[in-house]
Amino acid sequence: MDDKKTKDGIEGEGSYSGTRDYNERTADFIKKGKVDKAAQDARQAMDSGEAAELKAAEAKGKAGDPRNMGSKSS
Description:
mainly alpha; 3 helices
């Protein structure tokens, strides 16, 4: 393996193996033709009773890491 890791396996700030895994899984998802179905499922979920919960989860995710919420610097 040519990834630059410390002796304990930590890759540092950027995870090359994590990025590679994500890219491979995303490419596989696209190749298998699952994008249109996932988009349709998402559209239906947003038109259902689940919409409010999904929007709240999205807002929470966009707000950032809750561990850093009290330490915002201006």
